[in-house]
Amino acid sequence: MAIKEKSILDSVIYSYTTSGGQLEEENKILKETVHTLREELELFKKPPLMVCEVNDIINDTAIVKIPNGNQFLVNISKSCDDIKPGDTVLAEQKNLALIKRLDISKKFNVEKFVIIDKPTTSWKDVGGLKEQIQEIQEVVELPLKKPELFRRVGITPPKGILLHGPPGTGKTLMAKAVAASTNSTFIEVVGSELVQKFIGEGAKLVKEIFELARKKAPSIVFIDEIDSLAGRRMEIGTSGEREVNRTFMQLLTELDGFKPLDNVKIIGATNRRDILDPAVIRPGRLDRLIYVPVPDFDGRKEILKIHTQNMSLENDIDLHDMLKRMKGFSGAEIKAVCTEAGYFAIRNNRIKISKEYFINAIEKVKREEELEGDDYMRMFG
């Protein structure tokens, strides 16, 4: 009986000790949770700090620019005595006293905002533009491949070129082909996106794009829709117009800063040469203008041959007739015809493409072109 009572007593003591340990552990966790919540509550009570940029240091004070553009002369705390102009700092909101220097780069991660590529497009992929290819090779390819030739002759090659002409005629394709032929980094920038996305920061971004181009040289900076950035300057009214002008001026500065034999070339592209500011196409900037037209019959033939070389065609297709039907088509539209003809075949579970599919594809592309033209006339006509 005594042994049984002792066993029960031991069980009770063990149970009490175990539960006591669990309670102690739970109590510890609760205390840590309360402490964490109190710390977070204190953080919520603290006023937010403002991020400012230091413009100048005057004795124990600094001139800072706050995000809305206003500038103030403010005091510097002892914990922030190692700042210099250009630094990013934290300031107390009430009196703007500088509290801490932020160790962050003022620069954008510019690679997020441009397309950087090593193109594989070759000159064989470009059809119907023999004269334009020869000119772009002389102006861009030759100085990158044989700069010593220009030094011996004693002439200065152009810094950049402007490709202009109707949409879809191969401007971007040629820019990629010359980048591939020179093994250059291809940096593509869309002018309209640069202006719309980065109000207040466009000029800085332009500067950093060209810094990136120098870093990744040999490189080609391709600025598509350059007319949206380099249009004729008018009376400056709105803040948006002022921002476009600042960005444009930075572009001109960067163009002037390049040496003609640097391993960086600039190619601009536009459908509207007529609205470009003369400053951007004067000698010393984008001074070589290359017109890229809608292809003629022979040009269409070359382009069609490129896009159909891997396609399975029926023997009844008269390519001469197809080319006449595609009169006035750009290179992009001819490619679209080939793609649509392929889709017609796929929809009918066919592998080979017949004359009927090609004709249907041409008609479809024509209808889409007419609809786009009607939309354009309704908007701008």
Please tell me about this protein's structure.
With 381 residues, the chain is of the alpha/beta class. It has three domains: 53 residues, OB fold (Dihydrolipoamide Acetyltransferase, E2P) (Beta Barrel); 182 residues, P-loop containing nucleotide triphosphate hydrolases (Rossmann fold, 3-Layer(aba) Sandwich), CATH 3.40.50; 84 residues, Helicase, Ruva Protein, domain 3 (Orthogonal Bundle), CATH 1.10.8. 47% of the residues lie in helices and 16% in strands. It contains eleven helices and eleven strands. A six-stranded mixed β-sheet has the order 6-8-9-10-7-11, sandwiched between helices. A five-stranded antiparallel β-sheet has the order 3-2-1-4-5, with no helix packed on it. A hairpin with a 5-residue loop joins strand 4 and strand 5. Helix 2 packs across helix 3 and helix 8 packs across helix 10. The protein starts with a helix and ends with a helix. The C terminus is likely disordered.
Number of strands: 11
H/E element order: HEEEEEEHHEHEHHEHEEHHHH
The multimeric state of the shown protein is single chain
Poorly predicted runs of 5 or more residues? 376-380
Give the overall shape: extended
Discrete helix count: 11
CATH class of the largest domain: Alpha Beta
Mean pLDDT: 82
| Ends distance | 110 Å
CATH architectural designation of the largest domain: 3-Layer(aba) Sandwich
